[in-house]
Amino acid sequence: MPKMKTKKSAAKRYTLTGTGKVKYKKMNLRHILTKRSPKRKRQLREAGIMDEASARRIRKQMLPYG
User: Fold this and answer.
1) Cα–Cα distance between 53 and 57 in angstroms, integer?
2) Is 10 exposed, middle or buried (0-12, 13-18, 19+ CB in 10 A)?
3) Alpha-carbon distance 15 to 23, whole Å?
4) CB neighbours (10 Å) of residue 47?
5) Tell me: the pLDDT tens digits for 1-59?
6) pTM of the entire structure?
7) What is the rounded CA–CA span in Å between residue 5 and residue 12?
8) Could you give the 3-state DSSP secondary structure of residue 39?
9) Which residue in 23, 30, 33, 31 sits closest to 66, CA to CA?
10) Which of 26, 56, 57, 58 has most Cβ atoms within 10 angstroms of its Cβ?
């Protein structure tokens, strides 16, 4: 049986932590930042941890060897 291919688009967007959780960069921090409060922009800089239901699908289908 051949190796499974990693979805490269997913590999660029998500990383796996040591405990197997899926980490991602939060959206809405690219442009038109003048209307956002400093608190909101500061919170958006932090990495997000995906909920377990979605993370299971990402790990299985898109990052099989992650």
Assistant:
1) 7
2) middle
3) 5
4) 10
5) 899 999 999 999 999 999 999 999 999 999 999 999 999 999 999 999 999 999 999 99
6) 0.85
7) 14
8) helix
9) 23
10) 58
